[in-house]
Amino acid sequence: MIFRATSALIVLFTFAACTPQGPSRDEVWETIEGCDGNERCAFATLATNEYNKIAGKPLGHGISVRGAKTDGKVVSLAVNVPERIKSEPTRDGRTAEQQLAYSVKKDLCGKKTTRRFFEIGGELEFSTYLPSGERFSKSTVDSC
Q1: pTM for the structure as a whole
Q2: Is the dihedral of CA 27, 113, 41, 100 positive or negative?
């Protein structure tokens, strides 16, 4: 259940539309100009901005975005997960952390826009944190 909820969270946060409206036209153009037309930088910056718009808001199942940052290539996304994720059983030979990494990659790579981000050298660093603040998992997606 936790992993389906987390997967749903990632689908919700695809780079094209992380919030119900996504970025405004002006935000997109300002970002492109700020990145000197660099496509990867623009993708990363727009995604980071959208993730940060929903930071701290509950998304269901004990999940919320802590925040995001980027260097123009890597989007570092931090997500809060519930304590009960630690009790998830091993499935198909994968630990809870491995299942989470697999689900994130699978969901992100299912979107054309996100695949393009990876094709041009972008990366998503995805970290999850328990209520105590302890990091539960960290994975990086850099290709599909």
Answers
A1: 0.81
A2: positive
In this structure, the number of other CB atoms found within 10 A of the CB of residue 82 comes to 14
- CA dihedral (15, 53, 76, 7) positive or negative: negative
Distance CA 43, CA 54 (A): 17
> Which tens digits make up the pLDDT trace of 40-63?
999 999 999 989 999 999 988 888
H/E run at residue 16: none
- Count other C-beta atoms under 10 Å from residue 11's C-beta: 15
Give the Cα separation of 129 and 40 in Å (integer). Answer: 27
* Strands 123-129, 74-80: pairing kind: parallel
Residue 129, classed as helix, strand or coil, is strand
Q: Which residues make Cβ contacts (< 8 Å) with residue 63, sequence separation at least 6?
A: 5, 6, 9, 79, 80, 81, 82
Amino acid found at 2: I
SS3 131: coil
